[in-house]
Amino acid sequence: AVLDLPNDEEAVLDLPNDEEAVLDLSDEEVAYQASLDERGLLAESSDDDLPPEPGVSSSNPTDESSGADPDDESSEIDDATVLLNTAEALPSRLLTTLHHDPSSLPDVRPCSTPAPCENRTTFDQLKFHRIFGCRNFKNAQLVASSSSNAKLLHAGERPATLGDFTTMDKPKAGKTIKKLRRYLDKVHLDVVYGDCVALGGYRYALLLVDVATRYCWIYGLTSITGSAIADALELFRADAGGLPKKFHADFDKRLIGGNALRWILRNKSKIIAAPAGRQSSNGLAERTWRTIIRMARAYITEKQLGREFWFYAVHHAALMLNQIPGRLKRRLTTPFELVHGVKPDSKTWFIFGSIGYFGVDKDGNVARATLEDQTLDGIAVGRDDASNTIVFYNPLTKQYYSPPIFKLDEDRLPVTNFPRNIKYSGGLTCGLFRNRTDPSPEPFPPGTRVTLASPADDGEVRGTVVNVPLVTTEVFTSAVNSPSTLECSAGYTIELDNGSRREVSFEELVKPPKTPSVSLDTAALEGLPYFLHPGSKVTMDHDGTFHKGYIEHSSEGFRFVVYRHPRSKTVDFAVPLPKLKQSWTTLVGDDVLIPGHGTVSTFLRPASNNGPSAKHVSAKNLLSPCPPSLIKALHPSNPDRQVWLDSYHEEKGGLEQHEVFERISKKQYLALRRQGLIPDALPSMCVLVIKKDKEGKPDRAKSRIVVLGNYEDRVYDKSKRFAPVLKYSSLRLLVSKAIGDKRVLQQGDCKNAFCQATLPDDERMAIRPPHGDPA
Question: How far apart are CA 157 and CA 217, in angstroms?
Answer without folding.
Answer: 34
